[in-house]
Specification:
The complex is a heterodimer of chains A (about 260) and B (about 280).
Chain A: H1 3-26, H2 37-40, H3 43-56, H4 58-90, H5 92-107, H6 114-121, H7 125-149, H8 153-161, H9 166-184, H10 186-203, H11 209-218, H12 222-250
Chain B: E1 10-21, E2 25-37, E3 42-46, H1 53-61, E4 68-73, E5 76-77, E6 85-88, H2 100-109, H3 115-128, H4 144-156, E7 162-166, H5 174-190, E8 194-199, H6 202-208, E9 211-215, E10 223-228, H7 237-240, H8 244-274
Parallel strand pairs in B: 3-8, 3-9, 6-7, 7-8
Antiparallel strand pairs in B: 1-2, 1-4, 4-5, 9-10
Helix pairs in contact in B: 2-3, 2-4, 3-4, 4-5, 6-8
The chains are: A mainly alpha (about 260), B alpha/beta (about 280).
Chain lengths: ~260, ~280
């Protein structure tokens, strides 16, 4: 399949889906509208809502808030994950002691932490950042931990035979290996940073995409909910494209840089 | 230090290597192996699969400590890693996140050489192993043979006095092996280091080495033979195989090696059945 036909077919899916949606919510079939507009809205209303948000500019404030929360959650969670993952992998005793607690915290559905974070950190961005951090941290942590532990013994021995001391092994062998594992989970961890931000906003905030969706839902504005969802997915896709670009640069040395683990 | 004779580059004295396996059982890989490699001498160790050839090499490298016996490097007892040795591994040992050039330069960089100078010399070494144009490739973009060339340059740039090689050309196809063998001899001829070369290929061993050492089948492998190869140098690997002396020596060594290879084969199938 050529690139243009593929694009055409992909567009076709969107057009058909929207047309079916529009049809079922506006045209009566056998005297009955199958999807009541009150619950399902329709593409035109949703589209005009999105246009209104962008033309009036209200959306930017919310987008920027959500973006900031995601970035902060990602950066803090990643840095903490890399450091702790590294530490645990190099100190098996520490890892063994903390193991049950790490598992316990990771088993906890992170959403239940949101009320606590709101109590501790208030309704501002930091409670959302904290929620995102708890999600990102564990993904990065487990990947880095695994990455450091699974450094090839041959490569390590080679480093030693080439005369590397512990510090140089760290810098030239453990560190790049751990980072490569972190980068390979980049898509997942960035995705979770956004999830943390949006869910946090949804559960209690004064701004952000999650807040926008929650507000619309509160007044049964279904068009607003759908519009929020569309903006959110476009936002995530844009971020994901950025991640793909970053990944291509960072993992040039990997044979399958495109298909990351995670 | 005795000045009557040059000290051996590597001297193993009755070295025994044992591993603890599954609790209290002890597996003796190599038993009382004595072997010495003179400075500038090329010694090949040949033996059946799983006989502990690599184990012996790791002892010489200081990666393994013998349970009993001595290891002396230029007449000094070996403690820790062998700093005089360069080690070419059987498996891929290049740093996958570094380019070919950085992989070669690293040996100098960690010694504190300025990066510019290290890169320049690395480029020189890449050229002498025939990969001058591949400096910016990452290991996964190179073929198996090319990776071995980079590995060779990586080891040689540090100018080690001893070269330890663990079936370095094992994974390569027959033609590439010959080319790599000739490259190795060419580089070695230019600057004769002591070489300890492990292989399971007797022909390769005779074609390359000054001495061929045969090990028995494991466990508790021993050194059971030591032949001097009197073929003239410089040699060409593919041509030296045609010579009469080569054939005679090959027949002589093979008559000893053959039984061990069969024993090793039986042992390996048995241990596979056992678990």
């Amino acid at each position: 399949m050529s690139r243009s036909t593929l694009l055409l077919l992909q567009l076709l899916v969107a057009v058909v889906a929207l047309a079916v949606w529009q049809f079922l919510t506006t045209v009566p079939v056998f005297g009955k509208i199958l999807l009541p507009p009150f619950f399902f809205s329709n593409p035109i209303d949703v589209g005009s809502q999105i246009v209104k948000w962008f033309s009036s500019g209200v959306i930017w404030k919310h987008l920027i808030i959500t973006l900031w929360e995601s970035i902060l959650a990602f950066v803090i969670g990643s840095v903490a994950g890399v450091l702790v993952g590294f530490w645990f992998a190099r100190q098996p005793r520490v890892a063994a002691v903390f193991d049950p607690y790490v598992k316990m915290i990771n088993a906890l559905p992170r959403v239940v932490l949101a009320p606590i974070f709101t109590l501790w950190l208030g309704l501002g961005i930091w409670s959302k950042v904290a929620l995102g951090v708890t999600l990102v941290f564990f993904i990065v942590f487990f990947n880095v931990y695994q990455g450091v532990k699974e450094v090839s013994n041959t490569v390590l021995d080679n480093g030693r035979m080439l005369g590397m001391n512990e510090r140089q092994l760290m810098r030239h062998v453990y560190w790049p290996s751990a980072l490569s594992w972190m980068f390979s989970s980049l898509h997942t961890s960035v995705g979770f940073a956004v999830v943390g931000a949006v869910v946090g906003e949804y559960l209690g905030s004064a701004a952000g995409l999650g807040y926008l969706i929650q507000q619309a839902e509160g007044v049964f504005d279904v068009a607003g909910v759908f519009a929020g969802m569309f903006v959110l997915s476009a936002f995530v896709i844009l971020i994901d494209m950025g991640v793909t670009l970053a990944e291509r640069r960072l993992l040039v040395w990997r044979p399958t840089a495109a298909e990351g683990r995670g | 230090m005795a000045d009557t004779a040059q000290p051996a580059a590597v001297a193993l004295g009755d070295a025994t290597v044992a591993f603890r396996v599954a609790g209290d059982r002890v597996y003796t890989a190599v038993e009382q192996a004595s072997l010495s490699v003179a400075d500038g001498e090329f010694v090949a160790i040949v033996g059946p699969t799983g006989c502990g050839k690599s184990t012996l090499l790791n002892v010489a490298a200081g990666l393994l400590k013998p349970a009993a016996g001595s290891v002396r490097i230029f007449d000094q007892p070996l403690t820790g890693l062998n700093r005089d040795a360069g080690y070419l591994f059987q498996a891929d040992a290049l740093f996958p996140w570094k380019t070919a050039l950085d992989n070669v330069a690293i040996g100098l960089e960690i010694k504190g050489a300025p990066r510019e100078q290290a890169l320049q010399r690395a480029q020189g070494w890449l050229t002498s192993v025939g990969l001058g144009a591949f400096a910016n490739r990452y290991p996964h973009m190179l073929s198996g043979g090319q990776r071995k060339r980079v590995g060779l340059a990586q080891v040689l740039i540090r100018d080690p006095k001893i070269l330890l090689m663990d079936e370095p050309f094992g994974p390569l196809d027959a033609q590439t092996r010959q080319i790599m063998g000739n490259l190795l001899l060419e580089l070695w001829n230019a600057d004769r280091k002591a070489v300890l070369f492990v292989t399971h290929d007797l022909e390769e061993a005779i074609a390359l080495a000054d001495r061929v050492v045969i090990m028995s089948a494991g466990p508790s492998a021993r050194i059971i033979g030591d032949w001097r190869v009197k073929l003239p140098r410089p040699r060409d690997i593919s041509e030296v195989r045609m010579e009469k002396d080569f054939h005679e020596l090959h027949r002589e060594i093979w008559s000893v090696l053959k039984d061990e290879v069969m024993k090793g084969y039986v042992q390996s199938t048995r241990s596979a059945e056992a678990g």
